[in-house]
């Protein structure tokens, strides 16, 4: 059976789309991920370690190869002062490209999103998306500039376990990670207005050295739809994102403090 699977895996060709994301045109998953998905149990969807979420902040450096091209910050704080029931997640980058992603969500087992704002800019190309979540539906507006087309609006039904794409970095951290486990959850890609599959294989434990120090981490081979990344999640609490690699474009995000 395994020999048959290996022989049927097609050549994987990765390219970069206009979002700067890594994608693949293969109809099948890479061999290790495919075998892991068959041999090991998947995460029960929507079950995250939400009680561990506390206000926090982290700073990162962004590299292409060995060249520093920018910085990033991650902040989680209460949406309303004095309450941890509803939290605000923010990821912001500066440098060669800019992103500002904000997601308000419930401190609940499914990290239920309430609204999100996504903004990215690379040169003169800008994309902004605002999304509202209500009663099993997501409604959003996508604006791209410079563009002669009108803003695109979408309204779709989403599962109760859906994770906003801006919150995937946090969702991976809060999944009950263990070596050889496959994690899986639906993701709303607000940039395209559709639900895609978020899947990750925890391949092994490794020591990761970054400017903030050396950490024992889970290596998670992650796919969000067709976008590929490698996440290194601190094995001990608070399970920080220590390093994140986008192999197709050699982008490397490293924890500073």
Features of the shown structure:
257 residues, mainly beta, 15-stranded mixed sheet, two-stranded antiparallel sheet, 17 strands, 54% strand, globular, disordered N terminus
Q: What do the pLDDT scores average to? A: 86
- Terminal-residue CA separation: 46 Å
Low-confidence runs (pLDDT<50, min 5 residues)? Answer: 1-29
Number of strands: 17
Sum up the overall morphology in one term: globular
- Total discrete domains: 1
> How large a portion of the residues is in β-strands, by DSSP E?
over 45%
- Helix coverage percent: under 10%
Element-by-element helix/strand order: HEEHEEEEEEEEEHEEEEEE
Helix and strand composition category: mainly beta
Instruction: Compute the number of helices.
Output: 3
Question: Strand arrangement, largest sheet?
Answer: 10-9-8-7-6-5-4-3-17-16-15-14-13-12-11
Descriptive report:
By secondary structure, this protein is mostly beta strands. The chain has one domain (2-255). It is built from three helices and 17 strands. The protein has helices spanning 2-8, 31-39, 168-174, and strands spanning 14-16, 22-24, 56-64, 67-78, 86-95, 98-106, 113-122, 125-134, 137-145, 152-157, 163-164, 182-189, 194-210, 213-224, 227-234, 241-246, 251-255. It has a 15-stranded mixed β-sheet. A two-stranded antiparallel sheet has the order 1-2. Helix 3 links the parallel strand 11 (163-164) and strand 12 (182-189). The termini are far apart.
